[in-house]
Specification:
- There is one protein chain.
- The chain has about 130 residues and is α+β, with helices and mostly antiparallel strands.
- The chain has 2 domains: about 55 residues; about 70 residues, Beta Barrel (OB fold (Dihydrolipoamide Acetyltransferase, E2P)), CATH 2.40.50.140.
- It has 3 helices and 5 strands.
- Strands 1-2-3-5-4 form a 5-stranded mixed beta barrel.
- The mean pLDDT is about 90.
Length: about 130
């Protein structure tokens, strides 16, 4: 969902509540009719504040396995083409890139991608040669 649309959806309940309360109070002659301008000011306030709160509504946070992409790991066994790597103190199942290659034990590798819970890694030596 687009950021601005998400922001509007979150504002709708507040706008609805303001509208209902003001309509009720104006129809009962508790408030004068000109007080309906407060509703309009409330809506304008939300539009004016949007640039400052936009980041809170954006959904580009990397979570879970996505955070590991780009990090460095150490192979715990030879990857031919699969095995395990240690990254941030945890063991992860990994697959060598390219699949036909073999990466020796205790080699520094960089995480290129992830398929499910399997990391796709490439030897850092291969990166410097390319």
């Amino acid at each position: 969902m687009k950021t601005f649309l998400k922001y509007l959806v979150f504002q709708l309940p507040g706008w609805t509540l303001w509208f209902v309360v003001l309509f009720f109070l104006i129809s009962r002659d508790v408030l004068p009719l000109w007080s309906a301008w407060f509703f309009l000011l409330w809506v304008i306030k939300d539009f004016v504040l949007f640039p400052w709160v936009r980041a809170a509504y954006e959904n580009n946070a990397r979570t879970g396995i996505e955070k590991l992409i780009g990090l460095t790991a150490i192979t715990q066994e030879a990857l031919s083409p699969t095995g395990y790597v240690r990254i941030n103190g945890e063991l992860w199942r990994a697959e060598a890139y390219p699949r036909a290659g073999t990466i020796a034990q205790n080699t520094r590798v960089r995480v290129r991608d992830a398929h499910g819970l399997t990391l796709v890694v490439e030897s850092e030596a291969d990166e410097t040669e390319a």
